[in-house]
Model the fold of this input.
Amino acid sequence: MGHWPKLYRGVFLLLLLAGQGFCVGFGPPQLAAHDMDPLSLSPVQVQQMTHMAPPEVQASAALLMDVGTQTVLYDHNGSERRAPASTTKMMTALVAIEHGNLDDKVVVQASDLTVDSAAGLQPGEVLTLRDLLYVMLLPSDNAAAQVIARYIGGSVPAFVDMMNAQAASWGLHDTHFVNPHGLDDPEHYSSAHDLAEIALHGLANPVFAEIVSTPERQVGTHTLHNLNQLLGAYEGTQGVKTGTTDAAGQCLVAEVARPTGRVLCVVLGSDDRYREAKALLDYYFANYESIPLTLGPKGLNRVYQPGGQEGVLVLHDQRQALLPDWQVPWLRLVRDIHDPQAGDGAGPVGTVRFTAGNNSLADLPVYISPP
Done:
């Protein structure tokens, strides 16, 4: 066992150099020397710490984000403006969902078919707006994007203005659209960061989330297959969108949810988007865990109010903490209840502090609720 102290010191120095603390919603705090002094590391924790190097990614830009805390764990040229290809269609879909009626029947016009139709849309064909969204997002049909834009905006340029207005309202400073489908244009660009934000807005929309998670769908005579090869092949994949053009290379925005966490990955300008996305996703699930900050079982949180009434301590603020696996054993909570008998059900009766080692994760107000 004489070799363990040297190993501990070596790992500790690596941690100080890397500045690798735990991650919470407002970013990863820095690990200082005093954070480790009173705490001991098990051999399992040491092993977990030494395997946390992120993968090598050759894509022009890449981003890995924990969805629960929106902590960015990997960022390679994340703010660089690049051709987004058909990942553009995420914004096209969101603007259409917000401004359109999904049950409206839309006629395909010959002018809509100036770009290719992967699904084989024909002039005079009638589809609902909902079905057009499936045609656009699953096989990535460019003509469907133009049909949607022309119908919702009155013209394609007017719809593109709506897309840019939405991007501006979300603070996406590295995004500008000139078309609804993503075909290459020097003035049509986005970034990995901005595409992640667009995807987060989309996944919060039930209609959008349902469409991008669908592997296959029949729309009239069209059998639609989702181009996202992670669906059904990589455990927990929820969507989101692929894209490929000469200028953009292979692009992918993907979201994966498992019991230990929910993560969003963006890969732009890749020669093998699925291999690189899987490497980043594997890194997340091998090293991190997203943990709900809760008070624990109800039996541990019973209090008595005036008149002998029983109450239960509860949190109104639902917060997540993202921890490296090696810090999970250090997760603790400390309740500071001022006077449970003064609780009137409206205001807080105290606070609870969540920590991992000597690092504070969150201080949340505690309330009393009926049992």
